[in-house]
Task: inverse folding
């Protein structure tokens, strides 16, 4: 069992094509620097209302600096330009990471030759880019699959590492849920005929490149709402600053235009405004690092809102293979006897169940593998006999379904002990499968085979519950078995004897009560439910229909990933919210830096508000502007990595983030501005 | 000591009203109070309203605007033609167009900004049919809007937010009239005048001069003036006049009447959304801001007046008595005026202009924070709900979910409307004040120069845009410039918020409700109260801090200390 766990973990951690890059990969940073300079255009800046105000302010300051050059105006102009540059750079770094990955993928998108089957079944060689939907192509060993398609004939092992990063080949065959092939993957053996389902430009690889590049990234609903709030907080400061000039005039004070612009830039939420798009891009990128391809940013955001998770039992909650968990003796036999015979009968049994029996016997009773020699005959399992076994040292040992083994024992004149029926029944009720072990005419005992729940899954569900997410286990098992496993795994609810229809109804019911539902699926019959769910994660191993219906594709085909997806979605929103709070909280200190400086000539008494004891009005204003710019650079890693997220209740998360980003957001700029003031004073600039 | 008892009585009294009046008001607006139903039906028949048919937000807003426009026109005509109308014992002539325009808007918007002295300008008919009627209906309109917003939050998949006419009638019949009647009896019982007999003329035979002492239907107007958080009194001296506010008891009653509906509405809200704790969280935010303001304000006023202190002949043992009624003393006057500026009422028992700079700052800040502590009748609740939505949005993002309030997702449309509703007031105040300090017509308004003159102008527009109506005095507001700019401020401050609020109600009501879970952002606990306060203070503070620094703050500093 231990080894099995390790296996699943190791597949989770494979890095794939979209391999992890260090946050500050040097080539990306270099490229990002050049890209960021290109963003100094009205067309780019106007998309972001906050930074656009800074942009206009910078231009005005530059003109002012040109007309009346002095160190103060020039320094302000430089630092305002740097503020924009830092915002551009943040976005460029986030995009750069995607672009680097897209470049790797693009290398695979080279035109290859396709062996097109004409109507009379003869082959012609055409370029893969000329393929139309519905065309049939032949692929043999070492051929690259020319485009996405469905196998209509044959079976082949395929190397999908180009897409998934998983080096072990997978088997794809016509019919059923394993018939989809992806363009760019390589056939390793055999011959298949593929019907093309995607033309050039719309293949999975094309989509993937588009997504990774973030070329047509749409703003997500929450991002739009936040942009509106930030725009409102920007707009309100325009009358604040303009009216201040008129108020000052009434009070016989004058404020230089440059100073007013500096005040405006410091007040509008530049920190979050500068980092907002980088946060969004980085969120998608974090999902990619987990080998999940989100087909829309909206889906990533919806993942954070999910309140119900539908999880397939097999593969997600349990390992999917039943494993031996107990040996129960019958009659005079001891547990060890059962273990011993069960082990011998399974030594040549290469099924996962058989291997699990050997392992359990070894672990619990330290029964070593017998030296079998040559003197044995292995009896393979057949549907007719419903048992397997071994003839060894004159003994005939069998294990199998209770009724069949009993019949076999009776045929040899043996007796069936009364207790057997009770034991078998109780095992069945627990949701496990009983295997009866017999030696010649005696029933020795029963092996309990269990659908084993993955380690740590229960804790995972507990975390989800603390986050207010309900888990529902979906299984084809009967309600009794399902209930037993559901209880063991700690899911909140289960859907037994699930059919596509009942699954669909469950999703609709949950949605009608206002909840957002996430699910995973791979089969064609999952497609309607995947489409209906708010977050539908299709397994890359699944059918084209499933992949098209869902809004995310898991390249690792690991259903447990759904939980990671939810966490990434939440983290994305938390990062935005926290940086918004931080940005607004910063304004308090900036006021205390700038307001006393503004009217120092007319009302020197206002210096009482200069609680940071900044050196001079000019150094105060410049320090605030420099802080405002540098904080953007300082927060880029946080924006890209996301705010630390621990699964906790909403209240706990909120309290933590209010303390760090709210209270911290008030305090940090006081320290930062003071420090900068000390430095520029020390440099004797003022 | 006696001040502590005053506070205790108010606290207990308001606590009881919160629970019972709050619950009663929920019943009224949910149609469960019917003891006057036969009378109601007659009104609906006259108005041609089907009491069971509800309106969408657009229908509700249209009715509200039409009704208010009619109210402005009706009041305007009465003021303009009062010279030809009855109940005018002193034979006052018609009110000038600009003043009549300003005054009618002022009372329809629940502001009660008064650019006139009531006893020397208006006839009894103008006071009663013109102004007092508006004091009832404008209050009921405000409560109705807050109820409509509550309905939006409480409902699910329903774009209707109630019927404006039904809310209007029920608010007046079941809430305002009964309480105002009882309050009026106490005022009159304590000695507030209530007569149509005209002024009293007292002849001083010794000096051979006659003194004309104005009287009028004062007592009952006083009751609804406070209860409806209107603030417009019969006399120019407002609550400082012994005919309006005869005893210490009526002063406490005034404070009680001002607070009773805004405070109790938080219970109504809680009850209608099925969670009293939700209402309590908002009440606590109101209470904390109010308490801090009151504490600072009373403390500031208990200090000697810095200008008087320069004279060595006067000892100020009882704090800053300048501009305060000796009958009431410093703390009670401060309580009255601070309550009135925290509730968009605007009535005064002493001169705001004579408050210490810090005391004046407290009066101003109550309004600048948006009149939410607890704010005017209805307007306090719906405005704090706008702040709550912004708090929910920022806080909700911080927990990693699409923010939701009471199960309603707060998305771009809601953010847009809430931000509009919250920011219209500061933008209005700043722009109009900026115009006033830049044109000669505006600059000639204040009687003081320098920072205090600036404070007077800033105060005037802050008061009007918040539908408060109190004045920092010192400003000659009865000019064409101030009458017109003030009217614009009052209209934007009233309808500029009401319309987004109603749109929000419609948008929220039509939404599906998300069920609560552990992952839900909690809005009924102290953390949320803290967040709401933070949003209120940050938005108010950030927008007004620069302006304040040129007004009250520099005044304080010029006095050499903070009070």
Result:
């Amino acid at each position: 069992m231990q080894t099995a766990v390790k296996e699943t973990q190791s597949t989770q951690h494979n890095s794939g094509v979209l391999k992890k890059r260090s946050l500050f990969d040097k080539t990306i940073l270099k490229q990002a620097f050049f890209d960021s300079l290109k963003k100094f255009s009205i067309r780019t800046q106007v998309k972001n209302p906050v930074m656009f105000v800074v942009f206009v302010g910078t231009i005005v300051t530059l003109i002012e600096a040109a007309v009346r050059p002095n160190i103060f105006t020039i320094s302000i102009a430089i630092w305002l330009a740097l503020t924009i540059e830092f915002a551009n750079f943040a976005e460029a770094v986030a995009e750069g990471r995607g672009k680097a990955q897209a470049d790797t993928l693009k290398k695979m998108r080279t035109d290859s030759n396709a062996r097109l089957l004409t109507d009379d079944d003869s082959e012609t060689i055409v370029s893969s880019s000329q393929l139309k939907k519905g065309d049939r192509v032949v692929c043999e060993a070492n051929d690259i699959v020319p485009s996405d398609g469905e196998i209509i004939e044959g079976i082949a092992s395929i190397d999908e590492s180009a897409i998934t990063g998983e080096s072990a080949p997978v088997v794809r065959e016509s019919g059923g849920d394993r018939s989809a092939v992806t363009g760019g993957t390589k056939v390793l053996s055999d011959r298949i005929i593929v019907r093309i389902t995607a033309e050039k430009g719309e293949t999975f690889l094309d989509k993937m490149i588009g997504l990774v590049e973030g070329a047509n990234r749409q703003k997500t609903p929450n991002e739009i709402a936040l942009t509106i709030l930030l725009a409102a907080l920007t707009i309100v400061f325009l009358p604040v600053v303009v009216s201040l000039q008129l108020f000052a005039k009434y009070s016989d004070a004058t404020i230089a235009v440059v100073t007013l612009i500096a005040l405006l830039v410091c007040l509008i939420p530049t920190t979050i405004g500068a980092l907002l798009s980088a946060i969004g891009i980085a969120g998608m990128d974090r999902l990619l690092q987990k080998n999940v391809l989100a087909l829309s940013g909206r889906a990533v955001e919806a993942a954070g809102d999910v309140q119900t998770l539908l999880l397939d039992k097999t593969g997600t909650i349990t390992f999917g293979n039943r494993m031996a968990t107990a040996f129960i003796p019958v009659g005079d036999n001891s547990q060890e006897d059962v273990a011993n015979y069960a082990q011998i009968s399974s030594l040549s049994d290469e099924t996962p169940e058989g291997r699990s029996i050997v392992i359990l016997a070894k672990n619990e009773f330290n029964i070593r593998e017998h030296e079998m020699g040559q003197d044995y005959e292995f009896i393979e399992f057949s549907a007719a006999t419903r048992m397997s076994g071994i003839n060894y040292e004159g003994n005939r040992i069998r294990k199998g379904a209770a009724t069949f083994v009993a019949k076999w024992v009776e045929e040899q004149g043996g007796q069936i002990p009364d207790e057997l029926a009770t034991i078998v029944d109780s095992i069945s009720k627990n949701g496990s499968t009983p295997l009866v072990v017999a030696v010649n005419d005696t029933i020795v005992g029963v092996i309990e085979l269990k659908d084993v729940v993955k380690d740590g899954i229960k804790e995972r569900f507990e975390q989800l519950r603390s986050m207010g997410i309900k888990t529902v286990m979906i299984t084809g098992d009967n309600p009794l078995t399902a209930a037993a496993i559901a209880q063991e795994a700690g899911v909140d609810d289960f859907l037994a004897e699930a059919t596509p229809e009942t699954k669909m109804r469950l999703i609709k019911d949950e949605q009608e009560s206002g909840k957002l539902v996430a699910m995973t699926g791979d089969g064609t019959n999952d497609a309607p439910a995947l489409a209906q769910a708010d977050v539908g994660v299709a397994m890359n191993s699944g059918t084209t229909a499933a992949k098209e219906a869902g809004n995310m594709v898991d390249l690792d085909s690991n259903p447990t990933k759904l939980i990671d997806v939810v966490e990434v979605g939440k983290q994305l929103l938390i990062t935005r919210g926290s940086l918004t709070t931080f940005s607004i909280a910063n304004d308090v200190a900036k006021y205390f830096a700038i307001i006393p400086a503004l009217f120092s000539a007319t009302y020197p008494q206002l210096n009482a508000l200069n609680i940071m004891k900044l050196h001079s009005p000019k150094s105060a204003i410049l320090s605030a502007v420099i802080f405002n710019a540098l904080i953007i650079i300082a927060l880029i890693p946080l924006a890209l990595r996301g705010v630390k997220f621990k699964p906790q209740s909403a209240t706990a998360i909120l309290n933590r983030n209010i303390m760090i980003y709210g209270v911290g957001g008030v305090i940090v700029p006081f320290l930062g501005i003071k420090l900068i003031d000390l430095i520029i004073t020390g440099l004797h600039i003022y | 000591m006696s001040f502590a008892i005053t506070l205790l009585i108010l606290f207990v009294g308001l606590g009881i009203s919160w629970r019972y009046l709050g619950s009663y008001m929920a019943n009224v607006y949910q149609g469960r109070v019917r003891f006057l139903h036969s009378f109601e039906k007659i009104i609906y028949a006259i108005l041609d309203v089907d009491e069971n048919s509800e309106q969408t937000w657009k229908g509700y807003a249209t009715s509200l605007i039409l009704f208010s426009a009619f109210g402005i026109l009706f009041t305007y005509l009465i003021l303009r033609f009062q010279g030809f109308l009855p109940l005018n014992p002193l034979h006052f002539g018609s009110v000038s167009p600009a003043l009549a325009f300003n005054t009618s808007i002022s009372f329809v918007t629940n502001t009660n900004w008064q650019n006139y002295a009531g006893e020397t300008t208006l006839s009894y008919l103008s006071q009663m049919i013109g102004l007092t009627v508006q004091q009832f209906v404008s209050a009921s309109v405000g409560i109705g809007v807050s109820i409509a917003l509550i309905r939006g939050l409480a409902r699910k998949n329903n774009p209707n937010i109630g019927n404006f006419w039904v809310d209007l009638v029920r608010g007046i019949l079941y809430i305002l009239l009964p309480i105002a009647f009882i309050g009026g009896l106490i005022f009159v019982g304590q000695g507030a005048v209530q007569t149509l007999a005209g002024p009293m003329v007292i002849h001083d035979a010794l000096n051979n001069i006659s003194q004309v002492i104005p009287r009028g239907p004062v007592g009952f107007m006083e009751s609804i003036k406070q209860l409806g958080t209107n603030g417009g009194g019969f006399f120019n001296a407002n609550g400082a006049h012994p005919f309006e506010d005869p005893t210490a008891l009526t002063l406490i009653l005034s404070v009680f009447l001002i607070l009773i509906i805004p405070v109790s509405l938080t219970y109504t809200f809680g009850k209608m959304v099925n969670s009293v704790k939700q209402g309590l969280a908002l009440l606590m935010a109101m209470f904390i801001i109010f308490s801090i303001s009151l504490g600072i304000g009373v403390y500031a006023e208990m200090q000697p007046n810095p200008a008087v202190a320069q004279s060595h002949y006067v000892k100020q043992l009882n704090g800053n008595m300048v501009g305060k009624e000796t009958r009431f003393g410093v703390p009670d006057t401060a309580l009255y005026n601070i309550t009135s500026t925290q509730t968009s009422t605007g009535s005064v028992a002493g001169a705001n202009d004579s408050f210490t700079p810090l005391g004046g700052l407290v009066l101003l800040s109550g309004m600048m924070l948006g009149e939410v502590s607890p704010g005017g009748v209805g307007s306090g609740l719906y405005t704090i709900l706008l702040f709550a939505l912004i708090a929910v949005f920022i806080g909700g993002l911080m927990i990693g979910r699409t923010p939701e309030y009471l199960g309603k997702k707060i998305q771009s449309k809601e953010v847009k409307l809430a931000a509009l509703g919250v920011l219209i007031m500061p933008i209005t105040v700043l722009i109009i004040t900026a115009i006033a300090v830049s044109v000669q017509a505006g600059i000639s308004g204040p009687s003081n120069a320098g920072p205090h003159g600036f404070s007077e102008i800033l105060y005037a527009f802050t008061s009007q845009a918040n539908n408060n109506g109190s004045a920092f005095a010192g400003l000659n507001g009865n000019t064409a410039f101030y009458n017109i700019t003030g009217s614009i401020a009052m209209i934007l401050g009233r309808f500029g918020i009401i319309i987004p609020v109603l749109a929000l109600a419609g948008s929220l009501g039509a939404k599906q409700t998300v069920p609560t879970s552990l992952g839900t952002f909690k809005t009924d606990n102290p953390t949320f109260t803290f967040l709401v306060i933070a949003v209120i203070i940050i938005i108010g503070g950030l927008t007004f801090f620069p302006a304040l620094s040129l007004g009250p703050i520099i005044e304080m500093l010029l006095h050499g200390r903070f009070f």
